[in-house]
């Protein structure tokens, strides 16, 4: 059933009014779910499994994975962290790729480490990936298969490379040691009832990581990296028969293990007495409650009976979560959000999982409210209207999935393959499974759904955990168990009342249809511009790289820049309130229900320089999309109750803000760069919230979206002119105009100084230093300069990876961002950020500037330039596979007057960039730029 688990879709419906399928087949409980024949699966003589899935969703590329049925759960007490350490070592030398050979080889093909080349380790699996690598050069395909081959059985694991990686992993641990991780460390013994899972976090024990003997790592590799615990998967634009032949030949030399260790699995121990744990951390700023009931894992979904149980259960839980979501939209609700689910938890255990995010100091009330809602569903079930809407919603998703089955992403396919290999969940045939689902839906009713949720709510194996805040009234064990008991015995509960009355989106709307007064072809990009009777220009381009997909963008200059800083809170929240309030005659909750099963959506935004509308839909729902766009302009809603809720949410976010280290760092950086009392800079504080005005929000929105003639529209997708044009006349041409000319203002805020160098000391739960460096200056805008600016950032990232990470072991990774923007005035920037050991920061900072000086001096590694060039060209070729590229082409052509598809505007520039270009740019930019270096250090 994996094909649809990954999409969370399970049903398809032809008739909405009655859940009835006259042509439904009859299935026996034991009938198997047919397997998807597109996936070719086999097992080699040495026990290795392979999967091959041909697809052209990304033309001329393929993805290569090796899935290891091996994780940190297999470590002994002296190996904690070695499963993860071994993952790192896979990139540090193999039989056929010495040192950084894998990275160097694939980066020349345009792949990027961390994006296209990566891996992860969990408790039960380790997965390596090479994503979207060019597949039409046979030698590149052979190289990728050889990498998988070496990862399987031929890691070098040299003493030198092991020692070099110890620091990198220590810094990865340091980067990840935030309040959330420390809370999890306190709670995991309760989640897992003190079994081995609680002791085998993949990152491991840093004392072991820093000091283990080389043999310990090699022993782990020898014991567990073996073909009977490995699967390889190749997905992409490939010849399946050719790939299969290559696999059989190349992987034949990997020996089958002799007397292998048993790959054991851990079941979480049973407990009849409920357990409870409150976890605290000084850096926690918001609370959370979880209530879990562990179960023995169910067998894989392979038969009609299994599928029936899964579909029924998932629909039931979705209905409960719809109720909880609707409750959270009310100001008086005691929780910010809540969710209840039943899911796989570990290899041998499933879990009923209830989670609550209470509002400050309302933990008991929030837990009570969610428990009562759960019990309401258990006792009374669901209304016909709820069930019908859920079926319609999931039906639409299923239908859309089948329509776009040839566009399933590589990662989605890999997800199904992983479930098949690791969890024995077969990859089903979607059309055949659909026949089974029709029968399931034909028999669906509230009694069945009610039974499914009651089945998983049992008395044993219960645990409640609370993430608390030291200054709040945190939920106690007695309170938690008393709330559960009272909810289970609450005789005052009444059935859920479904008050929704279905309406049309356009109820009460008097459309005054307009006309298309002219149309003009632009042959350069094969687009058409329609001018409407209300003055709107609509730039349209047909694109069917994504079938049935249509996207709309409308934009006008102005935005926040036209307002005074005192009004910034209201201006920046205007579209938030409008989206929260609904549209036309419909509240936000009613709008959600009206749109169940519809793919159309439309959102609004007010940015610094622009106001905009974004919308999308499948072709069958394009009229609904147009209606939503019309209503966002002509019939916005502003609900005072939602305004109160918006303010409440912001005020709740302020409470305990002083505990949140990220907020401290963000605010202190703002003060360092712009000064503490700069009137043009608004940070989130009580004054910001006090300056919010309902009337101002309403007037700002109405002002920004009052003149349709000031907007330009861009519509791109799989829609023909004969379908589109009548809809433009009916909906877009009918929007009112006032014919004003507006532009943005340059509201750039000056820094406090052109050179800022500041250390900021902060109390930290896990001591570390965080470095923030930025260079910025005015600069002449051109396509070449824009591309060179990005080249500079990518080359520096390669340098920092080699120097700061690999050579020094000083950081898990340095993030680099560089670019050139055109508006409000042409500016170039370079930003650098990394975490490190506080005791090493003064050692690492000079290296940052040395690498920049090398580039300014012309000491540019030619290989870095070629890797960057290859990545830019590969990324551009990949982007052309999707309709989004056509939208970018249309937008940039009419907005900025250039064609991104013309080689002279991109490929020719990228191919011609030299080391001298990078050097000259770095000098002209960096030598004149203003800069800041802000270093956060632990308060001792």
From TrEMBL:
Its cofactor is Zn(2+). GO terms for biological process: proteolysis. The keyword Signal applies. Residues 212-391, 692-871 form the Peptidase M16 C-terminal domain. One of its GO terms (molecular function) is metal ion binding. InterPro entries: Metalloenz_LuxS/M16, MPP/UQCRC_Complex, Pept_M16_N, Pept_M16_Zn_BS, Peptidase_M16_C. It holds the Pfam family Peptidase_M16. Belongs to the peptidase M16 family. Residues 58-177 form the Peptidase M16 N-terminal domain. It comes from Flavobacterium agrisoli. Keywords: Signal. The keyword Signal applies. This is Insulinase family protein. Residues 1-24 form the signal peptide.
């Amino acid at each position: 059933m994996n094909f649809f688990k990954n999409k969370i879709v399970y049903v398809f419906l032809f008739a909405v009014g009655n859940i009835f399928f006259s042509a439904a087949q009859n299935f026996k409980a034991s009938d198997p779910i047919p397997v998807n024949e597109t996936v070719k699966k086999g097992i080699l003589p040495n026990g290795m499994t392979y999967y091959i899935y041909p697809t052209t969703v990304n033309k001329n590329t393929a993805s290569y994975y090796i899935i290891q049925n091996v994780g940190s759960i297999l470590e002994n007490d002296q190996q904690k962290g070695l499963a993860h350490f071994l993952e790192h070592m896979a990139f540090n030398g193999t039989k056929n790729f010495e040192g950084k050979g894998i990275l160097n080889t694939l980066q020349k093909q345009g792949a990027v480490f961390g994006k296209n080349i990566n891996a992860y380790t969990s408790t039960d699996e380790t997965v390596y990936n090479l994503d979207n690598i060019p597949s039409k050069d046979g030698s590149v395909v052979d190289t990728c298969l050889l990498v998988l081959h070496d990862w399987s059985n031929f890691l070098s694991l040299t003493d030198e490379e092991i020692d070099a990686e110890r620091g990198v992993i220590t810094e990865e641990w340091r980067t990840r040691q935030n309040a959330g991780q420390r809370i999890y460390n306190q709670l995991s013994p309760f989640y897992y009832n003190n079994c081995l899972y609680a002791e085998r976090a993949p990152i491991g024990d840093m004392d072991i990581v820093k000091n283990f003997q080389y043999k310990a790592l090699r022993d782990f590799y020898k014991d567990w990296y073996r073909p009977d615990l490995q699967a390889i998967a190749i997905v992409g634009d490939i010849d399946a028969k050719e790939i299969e032949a290559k696999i059989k030949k190349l992987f034949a030399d990997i020996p089958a293990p002799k007397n292998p260790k048993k790959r054991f699995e851990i079941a979480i121990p049973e407990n009849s007495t409920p357990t409870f744990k409150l976890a605290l951390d000084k850096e926690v700023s918001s609370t959370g409650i979880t209530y879990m009931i562990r179960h023995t894992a169910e067998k894989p979904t392979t038969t009609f009976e299994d599928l029936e149980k899964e579909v029924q259960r998932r629909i039931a839980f979705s209905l409960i979560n719809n109720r909880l979501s609707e409750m959270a939209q009310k100001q008086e609700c005691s929780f910010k959000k809540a969710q209840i689910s039943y899911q796989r938890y570990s290899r041998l255990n499933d879990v009923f999982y209830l989670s609550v995010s209470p509002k400050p100091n309302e933990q008991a009330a929030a837990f009570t409210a969610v428990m009562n809602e759960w019990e309401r569903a258990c006792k009374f079930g669901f209304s016909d209207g709820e069930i019908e809407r859920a079926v319609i919603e999931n039906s639409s998703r299923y239908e859309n999935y089948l329509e776009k089955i040839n566009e399933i992403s590589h990662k989605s396919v890999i997800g199904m393959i992983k479930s098949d290999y690791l969890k024995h969940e077969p990859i089903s045939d979607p059309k055949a499974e659909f026949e089974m689902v029709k029968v399931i839906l034909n028999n669906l009713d509230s009694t069945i759904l009610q039974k499914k949720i009651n089945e998983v709510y049992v008395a044993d194996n219960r645990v409640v955990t609370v993430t608390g805040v030291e200054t709040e009234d945190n939920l106690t064990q007695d309170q938690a168990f008393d709330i559960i008991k009272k909810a289970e015995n609450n005789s005052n509960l009444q059935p859920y009342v479904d008050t929704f009355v279905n309406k049309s989106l356009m109820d009460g709307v008097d459309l005054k249809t307009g006309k298309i007064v002219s149309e003009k072809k632009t042959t350069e990009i094969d687009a058409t511009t329609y001018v409407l009777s209300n003055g709107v220009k609509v730039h349209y381009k047909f694109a069917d790289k994504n079938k049935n997909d249509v996207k709309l963008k409308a934009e006008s200059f102005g935005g926040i820049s036209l307002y005074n800083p005192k009004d910034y809170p209201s201006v920046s929240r205007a579209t938030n309130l409008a989206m929260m309030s609904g549209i036309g005659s419909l509240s936000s909750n009613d709008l959600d229900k009206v749109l169940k099963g519809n793919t159309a959506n439309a959102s609004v935004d007010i940015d610094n320089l622009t106001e905009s509308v974004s919308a999308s839909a499948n072709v069958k729902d394009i009229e609904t999309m147009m209606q939503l766009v019309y209503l966002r302009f002509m019939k916005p809603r502003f609900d005072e109750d939602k305004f109160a809720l918006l303010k409440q949410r912001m005020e709740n976010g302020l409470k305990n803000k002083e505990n949140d280290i990220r907020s401290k760092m963000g605010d202190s950086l703002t003060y360092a760069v712009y000064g503490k009392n700069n009137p043009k800079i608004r940070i989130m504080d009580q004054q910001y919230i006090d300056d919010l005005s309902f009337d101002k929000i309403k007037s700002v929105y109405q002002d920004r979206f009052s003149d349709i003639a000031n907007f330009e529209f861009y519509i791109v997708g799989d829609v023909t002119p004969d379908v589109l044009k009548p809809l433009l006349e009916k909906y877009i041409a009918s929007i009112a105009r006032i014919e004003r000319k507006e532009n943005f203002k340059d509201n750039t805020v000056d820094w406090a100084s052109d050179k800022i160098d500041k250390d900021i000391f902060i109390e930290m739960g896990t001591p570390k230093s965080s470095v923030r460096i930025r260079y910025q200056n005015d600069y002449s805008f051109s396509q070449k300069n824009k591309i060179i600016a990005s080249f500079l950032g990518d080359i520096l990232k390669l340098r920092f990876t080699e120097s700061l990470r690999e050579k020094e072991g000083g950081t898990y990774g340095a993030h680099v961002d560089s670019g050139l923007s055109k508006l409000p005035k042409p500016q170039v920037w370079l930003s650098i950020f990394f975490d490190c050991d506080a005791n090493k920061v003064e050692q690492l900072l000079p290296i940052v500037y040395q690498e920049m000086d090398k580039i300014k001096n012309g000491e540019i590694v030619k290989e870095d330039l070629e890797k960057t060039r290859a990545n830019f060209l590969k990324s551009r070729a990949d982007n052309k596979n999707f309709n989004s590229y056509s939208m970018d082409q249309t937008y940039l052509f009419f907005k900025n007057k250039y064609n991104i598809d013309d080689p002279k505007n991109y490929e020719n520039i990228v191919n011609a960039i030299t080391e001298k270009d990078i050097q000259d740019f770095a000098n002209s930019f960096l030598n004149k730029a203003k800069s800041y270096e802000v270093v956060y250090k632990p308060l001792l």
